[in-house]
Amino acid sequence: MIVSGMVAYAAAATVDKPTGFLGSLATAAEDFIKVFNKGGSVLLSLMGGILPTLIVLLTAVNALVRLIGAEKIENLGTIAARPGIQYYPVRYIILPFVSVFMLTNPMAYTMGRFLPERLKPAFYDSAVSFVHPILGIFPHANPGELFVYLGIATGIQQLGYGLGDLAVRYLLVGLVVIFIRGIVTEAITAKMMSRAEKAA
Fold this sequence. Notes:
- By secondary structure, the chain is mainly α.
- The protein has helices at about 1-10, 20-45, 50-70, 70-80, 90-105, 120-130, 145-160, 165-200.
- Helix 4 runs antiparallel to helix 5 (about 90-105) and helix 6 (about 120-130) runs antiparallel to helix 8.
- The radius of gyration is 27 Å and the shape is elongated.
C-alpha cells in the first residue's frame, strides 16, 4: 500500500524543464543523441535493404576478376593506349566501364596507369563521370554515392514509373557523355601540352 502510494505520487509529480543556459544545454544534448538515433535507424534499414545486395555484388565482381584474370583486364588498358581514332571507343567507353564495374570507385582510376601521360586526364574525366550512371544497374560500383541515383529513382517511382527503364537510360546516356567528355578532354589536354612545350 505504501509502495503503491509512492509510485502514484512519483507519477503525479512533474519536473519542470530547465530554462536558460541549462535548458539550452539539455536541448542540445537531446538533439545530439537524436542524430545518432536517426543514423542507427538508417543503418538498420540499409542492412535490411541495399547492403546485402552490395556485398553479394562485390563478391561476384571479385570472383569474376579472378576468373578472367587481372592481367587480361590490364591488357585492355594497353590496347586502349594505342594511337588512332578507332581506339577512342575502347579508351573512353569500354575501359572506363570495365574499370568502374570491376575495380569500383575510387580504384577504377588506377587503370589510367596504362595510358600515356597525354591521355590520363581524359581517361580520368571519363571514369569519374561514369561512377553515377552505372549505379542504377550496378550499385556496387559506387555505393558511397548511391543516394544520387536513389533520389532520382524515388521521384520516378512517385510518378508511377518503373526503375528498370530509368536504370538502362541512365547507363546509356552516361556512356554517351563519357565518350564525348573523353574526346573533348583529350583535345584540350593536347592543346595545353603543346602550349607548355612552346613556352618552355
